[in-house]
Amino acid sequence: MESDCRIPMACLRPRVLALHALFWGLVSLRVFGAALLSEEKSAVTKSVTMPCWQLEEFVVATECTLCNAFQTKTEVACRQTGYVERINCTKSNKDELKSCRSATMEEHLFWKFEGAVLGLTVIFALVVVARQRSLDRQASEKVRRQIESI
């Protein structure tokens, strides 16, 4: 009689089981070891590469303003949104630039989005009306043909 076991009996030998355990143990050790090493490295590099406003409290010295052409080319913070605010970190007492989103820029983007949605609404409404007229025409033509055939 055939067994319902899907694992071949050769895989259940102690030597094969020990090799599997050793292999998966090494794989998991490598994965978890790499994760631990990356956490240690990121903790060391975080304090070096991260701006002070991500690590400590800060005060906004200058509100969000539009970057000029020179700042846009030279400052990394200006490249992201085109607007920047000057901040002062409290613990380290550093002045840095931080990218920000302006209220006027947000309002402009909002109205562009609203205009696009309104335009798409009009276009799809016209498509629906045209399709409905086409279907009405086809239905009336079908009824006319049925009446003529009688």
TrEMBL record:
Example GO biological process: mitotic cytokinesis
Keywords on record: Cell cycle, Cell division, Cytoplasm, Cytoskeleton, Membrane, Mitochondrion, Mitosis, Signal, Transmembrane, Transmembrane helix
InterPro entries for the chain: JTB (IPR008657)
Major site of localization recorded for this protein: cytoplasm
TM spans (from-to): 16-37, 109-130
Gene Ontology CC, one term: spindle
Protein name according to UniProt: Protein JTB
Repeat in keyword set: no
Subcellular localization: Cytoplasm, Cytoskeleton, Microtubule organizing center, Centrosome; Cytoplasm, Cytoskeleton, Spindle; Membrane; Mitochondrion
